[in-house]
Every structure is written in C-alpha cells, then in structure tokens.
Amino acid sequence: MLPGHVAGHYGFDECHIDLIRLARFAGARLIHDEAVGLDRARREVLCRSHPPIRYDAVSLDIGITPRRDDVPGAAEYTVPVKPIDRFAQRWQALLDRAMSAARLRLAVVGGGAGGVELALAARHRLAQLPAPPEITLVNPRPAAAVA
Predict the structure, then answer these.
(1) 138: containing domain
(2) What's residue 20's pLDDT?
(3) Is 62 exposed, middle or buried (0-12, 13-18, 19+ CB in 10 A)?
C-alpha cells in the first residue's frame, strides 16, 4: 500500500496492519524478537531473546534496513523507503517543500517492481505542482531486463 500512500490514495494509518489481530485470526503466533541464526540440524530459528523456535519449513526475510553505507553520500543525502514510518515523515516534508519549489527533481534508486511503482506514484502525487517534477529511475540492469 506504500505506493498508494505516496500517490495520495491512502492515509498513513490506512497502510498499517494490526499484526496481533491478524496472527490471532490466522491461528498463528506472533513473536516480537530478532532472529539471529538457524540451527539447521535441530531445525530451529535462534532468537536474540526468545527460546529457539522449531520449524519444518522456514522462510527468511533478510531485513528492512537498506545498506546505504555501500554508496558514498547515500547515508547523508537519501531517504530510504524502509523503515516506512521514517519514510512517511520525510515524504510529507518533501511534499511541503515541493509546493514552494520552482521544479522538483526526484531520483528513485531501484528499478524493480517496487521502485517503478514508487516512481509512478510520486509522479501521480506531484502532478498538481505548477511545474511537473522530473523523476529519474536508476537501475543497474538494462531496461529490457527490468522485472
């Protein structure tokens, strides 16, 4: 729903899911902790504070924090999408600033589905400005290879 928020279709609060309620509805457990490793022999997820969690199958999400230190200047001059709450604050600040800017230039780094959706959503939202924004999508692969 983040592109919908950026486009102005949804408010920030509408983009959040009550995970406790969802887990309860699904008959699942929700554990607020950090996974720090896997014990493949015992088939357990190792957590920072919670006892190990046994599994038959495991799906890993490697995290939400982009590695901005790999690109010189990125930590100082970019706005990462994740974590989303910080992005939403910075997006609102950009919208406020854009109303008085002569022309806004926005670069979206990442040409996958998420980056393309974000660029299109930003274009939609910023179309009301007196001067249309210049939006650039940066992707390391040739355009024909973008998914």
Answers:
(1) 65-145
(2) 92
(3) exposed
- pLDDT tens by residue, 39-65: 999 999 999 999 999 999 998 876 666
Q: What is the pTM of this model?
A: 0.71
**Total structural domains within the chain:** 1
Nearest in space to 98 (alpha carbons), one of 74, 67, 63, 123: 123
Q: Is 92 left (phi over 0), alpha (psi -120 to 50) or beta?
A: alpha
- What is the C-alpha separation between 87 and 97, in angstroms, rounded? 15
Sign of the alpha-carbon torsion through 113, 118, 124, 127: negative
Q: Could you tell me if residue 140 is inside a domain?
A: yes
Query: What φ, ψ does residue 12 adopt, rounded to 5°?
Result: -60, -45
Q: Tens of pLDDT along 71-103? A: 888 888 888 888 787 888 889 988 888 888 778
**Residue in the structure block whose two tokens are 């997006």:** 91
Residue 53 included in any domain = no
**Position 15 in a domain:** no
Provide the token pair at 135.
């939006």
Residue 125 counted as domain residue:
yes
